[in-house]
Amino acid sequence: VHWEVEESPPPKSNFGQSLVIALPASKTTTLSIKYKTTEKSTALQWLTKEQTQGKQYPLCFTQSQAICGRSLLPCQDTPSVKAPFTISVTVPEPLTAVASGEPSGDPESSGNFRTFRYEQKVPVMSYLIAIVVAHLESCQIGPRSKCYAEPGVIHAAQKEFQDIVEDFILKAQEVVGGAKYEWGSYNVAVMPSSFAYGGMENPNCTFMSASLIPGDRSLTPTLAHEIVHSWIGNLVTNAFWKDFWLNEGFTRYIERRVLGKIFGPAFRGLLLLVGYNDLIKAVDMLNQQGTPGLTRLEPEIDEIDPDDAFSRVPYEKGSLFLFYLEQIVGGEQQMTDWLGAYVAAFRERSIETEDCKQHFLKFFKGVKRIKEIDWEHWLHGEGLPDFDLSSYVDRSLVDESRALADSWLNTSTSDVETGHMKAQQWMLFLDHLINAVVAGTSISHDTLASMESKYKLSLTKNVEVSFRWCLLGCKCKWPVCLDWTEKFLANHGRGVYVKPLYMALKAFDAERAISVFQQNRNFYMTVVTRQIAACLGLG
């Protein structure tokens, strides 16, 4: 078989080089490719033992989304190509290897090494080939679910996820019209807090950041989100990265439907408004970067690394669009009927936005209001869409957050009772304050100090609340927040937290932002390090 490594043209130089293999015509061929990864392989994250929770053994994990699979193995590294796979991983004892498939037999021992084998029978994209190797223990968290984590984390993780996993799976199945869960087991592996994402939907083994274990289950919506990917993203996939909202927007929409079924419509309304405020922050950040085109739902990113285009926009603008469509077609049940047909039509396929649009129009051809949909505005319009979400949701929990924020903005204090408030209400409260500051309202340092004295927000274990408190402090140029912000940036590596924080810290104290980044750059994953370095002007 003839093969060659093709030289990439200059515009594509950052995307790697093609391995071109001439295959015989009309014949099935088995290829064996020998290769090595290097320390520059962006899909691989190597942690020294000092960087782990237990500090006894090193840890390694992979993260290939969006286009890092090519640095892990030779593959057609695009979401438009799917294939089943088998994988074997040999590791030194007492480490354990967990991968994104079902185990094939028991581990085999040879000397001081063990080999773990896994098989994924459902065709998947290259970015879902995933491995974590570490000193791991496991525990049962549901009838088809295990949790893997370092020994010092395993009990907290079990308490956080026990039994709720199965409830989420069953409710998600209802929302997608009864479509079968096709993956067998559903397991969770807890990643170090340096993980660049909240969760990663690797089949049979979702990766979840340790940052999302506050001890009160307040951040389990992320787990619900990753479970929904079992149908949307992993089974029905965006063909190209411009269509990423078909993955994340759908998943976010269904996730909130699931949580609404469990916790009630007021909680769904709260999550929708939290998400809308995340969208506001994302649009503001992208406009500050001078990339307003990335606020489109279907952006033009042919010459852009998809990771550099990553933001909350496909999640929140996509979810908002589907919520708008829900109002157009008549409600939740109508959307559930369509989602069932959508998954059945496109399972194991990779599709574009136009495929989704045409399927929707055909399914709802008898609904008169579909003529009202301005597809161009939603798909290609920049910035926030012209849609008043707040008038369509149960606002009872939302209004409590708004009242608390208004009290502080108008009187610099508040006597509103807060002991019963949910974590998401605190997030929304802080979002209201952040949005007010961005809009030009001034919040004094004395007012911020009074909030801290009253609510002890710097001591929260909820990473979402902590992130917002640090962000508000930086935007208000409050010196007291600097130590908390530095501590946060040294302990959490999720991109949607650290990138906005570094941008806000740069606007507050550019020299300090660069210093903090230089201290922590080896803690973050490559995908995050590259983006922050660019934001700080470090190349």
Automatic annotation (TrEMBL):
GO molecular function: aminopeptidase activity
Coiled-coil stretches noted in the UniProt entry, renumbered to this chain: none
Keywords for the protein's UniProt record, in alphabetical order: Aminopeptidase, Cytoplasm, Hydrolase, Metal-binding, Metalloprotease, Protease, Zinc
This protein's record includes keyword Metal-binding: yes
SMART domains in the record: Leuk-A4-hydro_C
InterPro entries named in the record: Aminopeptidase_N-like_N, Aminopeptidase_N-like_N_sf, ARM-type_fold, LTA4H_cat, M1_LTA-4_hydro/amino_C_sf, M1_LTA4H, Peptidase_M1, Peptidase_M1_C
Domain Peptidase M1 leukotriene A4 hydrolase/aminopeptidase C-terminal: 396-536
Subcellular location as annotated: Cytoplasm
Pfam families: Leuk-A4-hydro_C, Peptidase_M1, Peptidase_M1_N
Keyword Ribosomal protein set for record: no
Cofactor: Zn(2+)
Source species, domain of life: Eukaryota
Family: Belongs to the peptidase M1 family.
Protein's name in the database: Leucine aminopeptidase (Epoxide hydrolase) (Leukotriene A-4 hydrolase homolog) (LTA-4 hydrolase)
Species assigned in the record: Durusdinium trenchii
